[in-house]
Amino acid sequence: MDNDRDERKRPQHLRLVVNNPDKRNARPATGEESFVSFEELVAKRDGLRPDFYRGLGRWQTRAYEKLEVQLARRQWPYGLDPQHGRLVVIPAEVVCPETLEHGGTPQDEVLIFAADDPTGQGICLSLEMILPFWSDDDAVMEDALFTAPILPYGMLFLEENRNDNYLDLIYRLSFPLFPSALTTRLLERFFAVARYELAETLAVLDAFPEA
């Protein structure tokens, strides 16, 4: 995987802020990342908002503001995490209720962030989720990646979890915004695509031999 180019377009330290240690026996961690519960992010959202928006460009600011308005209208619970890379954190079951049917838990989360697109002429709205599929055998994780469906909009990739050094199977969806027209209609399609692709992927992984 070409991580160098990828890292320029995503926040550093992009990681779920809630882990599920009961799902795996962790290897010794090389570096412990600070733990922030989702409930804390929601409760402190207004207090965290100044740090979240501080230093953002105009296009990113407008995209995040529009996203917050739309999430409030949907009455979706969400948190703002300025510590791990300007992340909007949403429970995965809210975005894709089928997650709970395929091995997910209420602690699983979806992360949304806005970053400059490769052209420098706009931004991309991106959604990421660590899928509730795990094996301590790297070869199994690689086979699961190859077995998963080919998605028309999103993508799947493997990334080493810095907390326990195991591989995570991650789903990402990115929509370009030019320059930052995050409309209600576009956001509805964004979440509709994410739900469809996540549900289809998780159903296929359920049938995987090591699941």
Would you summarize the structure shown here?
By secondary structure, the chain is of the alpha+beta class. It has helices at residues 3-7, 38-43, 45-53, 58-74, 92-95, 138-147, 184-206, and strands at residues 79-81, 87-91, 109-116, 123-130, 155-160, 167-177. A hairpin with a 6-residue loop joins strand 3 and strand 4.
Secondary structure blueprint with pairings:
Layout: H1 3-7, H2 38-43, H3 45-53, H4 58-74, E1 79-81, E2 87-91, H5 92-95, E3 109-116, E4 123-130, H6 138-147, E5 155-160, E6 167-177, H7 184-206
Antiparallel strand pairs: 1-2, 2-3, 3-4, 4-6, 5-6
Please tell me about this protein's structure.
With 211 residues, the chain is of the alpha+beta class. The protein has a single domain, classed as Yope Regulator, Chain: A (2-Layer Sandwich). Helix content is 35%, strand content 19%. Strands 1-2-3-4-6-5 form a six-stranded antiparallel sheet. Strand 1 (79-81) and strand 2 form a beta hairpin. The protein is globular and about 45 Å long. It starts with a helix and ends in a 5-residue tail after the last helix.
Q: What percentage of the residues does DSSP assign to strands (E)?
A: 15-25%
Structural class: alpha+beta
Strand order in the largest sheet: 1-2-3-4-6-5
Tally of contiguous helical segments = 7
Overall pLDDT metric: 83
What does the largest sheet look like? 6 strands, antiparallel
Helix/strand order: HHHHEEHEEHEEH
Examine the coordinates and then state which fold CATH places here, giving the name of the CATH topology: Yope Regulator, Chain: A
Count the domains.
Answer: 1
Distance between the termini: 24 Å
Could you give the count of β-strands?
6
Tell me, briefly, the overall form. Answer: globular
Kindly provide the radius of gyration, computed on alpha-carbon positions and rounded to a whole number of angstroms: 17 Å
Amount of helix? 25-40%
Query: From the coordinates shown, what is the CATH architecture?
Result: 2-Layer Sandwich
The CATH class, by name, is Alpha Beta
**Uncertain spans:** 1-21, 25-30
